[in-house]
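User: I'm curious what two different proteins look like when written out as structure tokens. Can you demonstrate?

Assistant: Sure. I'll show them one after the other, since each token string lines up with its own sequence. Here's the first protein:
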Amino acid sequence: MFKFDELKNIHLEISNNCQASCPMCIRNIHGGLKNDLVKISNWSLDLYKKVINDEVLNQIKKIYFCGNFGDPILNNDLQKMCEYTKTINPSITLRIHTNGSLRDTGWWSDLVSMLPKDHGVVFALDGLEDTHHLYRIGTDFNKIINNAKAFINAGGKAEWAFIRFKHNEHQVEQARKLASSLGFEVFTTKDSSRFLLDTKFPVWNKDKETTHYLEPSNYSEIKFIDRNVVKNYKEQIKAMHIECFVQKEREIYIDSFGHLMPCCYLSSTPYVPISHEGDAIPVKHDILEQHYKLVESLGGLPKLDIANMSIKQIIQAEEYQTVWKKYWNEDKLITCARVCGKNAEVSSPNKQIISRDSL
């Protein structure tokens, strides 16, 4: 793994709280049931300044406020964190990923002055007014649009991120035109890779009643996991050649609890509920067992906790520097193989298992 003085990018989860109930998010079970494994946690401004100190800020190129579970906008200190970061390193890049359905337009206008010149806010807008809410449950399309307009009109650089499903795929071009007219600088589409075994994903209410189904876009190029893949996953993992994305990008991930891991994928494992995964349960159990062995190999959670150790101390530790070859070459981590693996026989990305995706 890379050394501390090579660190360039930091992905931070400053809050794991979110008002939305997106059905495929780990915070929720099919949208209607709460995942009790995720306990609400937020970074304070003091903690942020302690961890992302001058030494760190003066060498890194980018900070990405996102995470696995929450929306950074729910952290009341976000604006101050941005302002502090800009003061120490005016040339840094700050990116914020949000559902955009929080705060008022004044807050969004004020945010612009606290961001460095090189910044971007990614608004998750999965459709138009009549379809957006089918996935982004608990958000308000018109409120998001108004907040984005306030941000853009104040000089902010905004991006529209559109996840395609069957129910909204017909609106992509209309949404693209709307984004352009509103002043969004970037419009992107992607397809969800979170369909497991069946490509009809039930969305539940709090009484566990199915309200509707999510289905992948007809235009998706992702090959979804089928039962044959699950049955033979051990053989497939052995055939993977792992090329770690964050090793190449010199990036680390720190979650809302203050635990440092190379990436958000490895960090999320202990919080993924497995009781509703059916045929995929054995795979999920293996992933969880591997995760605990990895943490033990890294010296245990205390040695990955920013409350006890600095970013520099964690990265420079012998364990952090040396264990990865074992878990990429010998005891291959399923998570690493499915996210950053290539089929060794054909040397092409193995989208049959999973593709890089952030929901």
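Here's a second, unrelated protein for contrast:
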Amino acid sequence: MAMPRLFWVVFAAMLVPWLIMNLRTAPRIEELAGGARVLEMRLTGYSFDDARGFVAAIGDEGARFYLDVQLWLDMAFPPLLGAVLFLGYRWLFPGLPGRIIGTVSLGSIVVDYLENVAVAAILRAGADGMTPQMAATANFWTTTK
């Protein structure tokens, strides 16, 4: 049985922000940061000093680009990924198991949005205004995701 057409449409739509983030925006931010990885892509986490150093390195230009471009793309990506996961699990596991697994996978959208809000707070605060608690919160959501 073939995967439903809706899955492929949503999958293609999901690829658009993912490709832009991974091929254009994240590399630009990382270049401004002297090669340091974008915060939301540090899946093993980061410390207050790491976050502070990153925000200082990207400066106002990088923070604005991160807020205005990267995080907006990352607001579009999670629901599309969630839809891909939901549809995929529904197809792989027909009936109630697929609905349950698919619905649970939608929790990743909430976690990614909470991470985006926390990273945005760090960027708006700047290197001198961010607190250890702000960095710990953002790190928590990054590693939870």
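A detail about the second structure: DSSP finds five helices and no strands in the chain.
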